Amino acid sequence: MWETLFKIAPEGFSLEQFDLWTELYEAKERGTLIEALVVRVKRLEVQGETWEVEFASKPGITGIVPANENGLPNGTPMNEFVGQKIIVKIKGVNKDEDLVACSRKEAVDTMLLRLISQLEENEVINAVVRAIGRRSVYLDIGGGVIVRVNQEKARLSKGVPLNVQYEVGSVLKVTVVALDYEKRIIEVLPVDPWNLWQFNRGEIVLGKVVSIRDNQAFVSVKPGIIGLALYKAEDGYEIDDKVEFQVNSYHKAKKQLHLLKWDPKRTVERRRERERIRTKRSTTSK
Question: Cys-Cys crosslink for 63: which of 53, 148, 194, 280, Cβ 3.0 to 4.6 Å?
Fold first, then answer.
């Protein structure tokens, strides 16, 4: 590494600026936590799936976090964390090979006990989406403590896939439904947004198009509430566009919202057609 290659500091620098290891050695001795960036998932023969992590301002040094030290609920997809920052404890340092053995589990266990002692059942808190699996969503409720919520409880809008309903890095409100200090368990559920909002047929709403799949558009109209709209290429909107839609139907109990792309001209034409039909019926009845 750099500090072993300089006998005298380059002009304008000090040797301390090239000291990449002292902080890591001190963190190991003191048990302090270090922030790291997950850059790769690698499968090793003994450890199985393993994160490779990097540390800020420490180029060339690689941290290793094996699966049994990742501190995640069973079944959490490790690939989802590539590109995300995590907190680790330094367990060992191999300076010759520029490797550092790390544990996220020990860092998270400390935070878990703190959270259990601070939280109360039925308390509403914020959570951040850290990973989305096929059948579960994984929420960070603070300090890297990840809670798994299965799809039956995580699905907020009917017919909406989890990877459309949720976005990694987004914030949502959850309710603490269970706490167990002895078993070190915290359970949460997303707050049901359908209890907060009401929509009526015919209303015009501004929604953000979050996904388009085949002939169906998924439109976010309120946090957690995603409506479904028939999509045609001539509609002319794309993902992330904000578009005006008209409410076609709303079912609170079923958690369904069906939308139509708002077209003022077409609405006027339909109104005129209805008037024409009524007038014709009235004339015929006479």
Answer: 53
Judgement on whether residues 134 and 156 belong to the same structural domain of the protein: yes
Length of the chain: 286
236-241, long-range: CB < 8 A, 24+ apart: 237/209, 237/261, 238/209, 238/212, 239/209, 239/210, 239/211, 239/212, 240/208, 240/209, 240/210, 241/208, 241/209
* pTM, full prediction: 0.81
Domain membership flag for residue 209: yes
pLDDT recorded at residue 235: 86
Q: Which residues of the chain have pLDDT under 70?
A: 1-7, 9-19, 266-274, 277, 279-280, 282-286
For the beta sheet containing 185-190, the strands, ordered from the edge strand earlier in sequence to the opposite edge, are 146-150, 136-140, 124-132, 171-180, 185-190
Q: Distance between the two ends of the chain, CA-based, in angstroms?
A: 98
Q: Residue 201 corresponds to which tokens in the numbers above?
A: 């047929």
